[in-house]
């Protein structure tokens, strides 16, 4: 018995139905970690992209080095560092928060490149028009450049969202109780791994298909010339 649920291994279908409520608990954690990590990646990635485009080499070069370092080191190593090394220096974070930060930090390096490519794709004439109108750099980004870059970056950002969703099982190594962690726990208690792990795989497949469909629909809905900012 786990969480008050009795397992009936005599029937695979009955067994699958009986463990769905438990896997649902892990599903919520998986979705929360994905949303939190993606929000961090979107914000931090934009910061990285803007800093890397700075006219000051003392800002642009260190930012590029940080992005490369994050992108070229494994997520698992970063996760272990945040969870096991930081407490040695007096910084202790909850497992879920550590996982969300690790996901967001890892993918911020990728989203920063997406932002950079989207900003570079805006025609140079738009920048020159902003200079001619004597707009500040901040207003140029806000009112002219970013609205035109958004339709260009949505597909790539959507791909990273799907990738991040599929990366969440790695958080189980720092005791985050996600779907994979619960499926393994169910297998340990019942000696039946096929059904719970198959269900987790099916749930991930459904989630990724829904995310992909939503991204494609958003991509078609956005005007190619850019969105209007108020």
UniProtKB/TrEMBL annotation:
It comes from the Bacteria. It is found in: Cell inner membrane; Cell membrane. Residues 27-215 form the ABC transmembrane type-1 domain. It holds the Pfam family BPD_transp_1. This is Polar amino acid transport system permease protein. The chain crosses the membrane at residues 12-29, 35-51, 81-105, 193-215. InterPro entries: AA_ABC_transptr_permease_3TM (IPR010065), ArtM/GltK/GlnP/TcyL/YhdX-like (IPR043429), Ectoine_EhuD (IPR014341), MetI-like (IPR000515), MetI-like_sf (IPR035906). PROSITE patterns: ABC_TM1.
């Amino acid at each position: 018995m786990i969480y008050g649920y009795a397992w009936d291994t005599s029937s695979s279908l009955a067994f699958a139905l009986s463990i769905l409520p438990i896997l649902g608990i892990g599903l919520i954690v998986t979705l929360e970690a994905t949303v939190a990590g993606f929000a961090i990646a979107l914000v931090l990635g934009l910061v990285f992209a803007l800093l890397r485009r700075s006219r000051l080499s003392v800002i642009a070069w260190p930012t590029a080095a940080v992005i490369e370092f994050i992108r070229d080191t494994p997520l698992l190593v970063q996760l272990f560092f945040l969870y096991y090394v930081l407490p040695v220096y007096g910084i202790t974070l909850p497992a879920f928060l550590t996982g969300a930060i690790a996901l967001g930090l890892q993918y911020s390096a990728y989203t920063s490149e997406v932002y950079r490519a989207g900003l570079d794709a805006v025609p140079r004439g738009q920048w020159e028009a902003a200079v001619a109108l004597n707009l500040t750099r901040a207003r140029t980004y806000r009112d002219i450049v970013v609205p035109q870059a958004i339709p260009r970056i949505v597909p790539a950002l959507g791909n990273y969202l799907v990738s991040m969703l599929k990366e969440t099982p790695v958080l189980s190594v720092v005791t985050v109780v996600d779907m994979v962690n619960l499926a393994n726990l169910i297998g340990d208690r019942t000696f039946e791994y096929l059904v719970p792990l198959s269900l987790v795989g099916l749930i991930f497949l459904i989630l990724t298909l829904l995310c992909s469909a939503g991204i494609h629909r958003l991509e078609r809905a956005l005007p190619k010339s850019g969105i209007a900012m108020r």
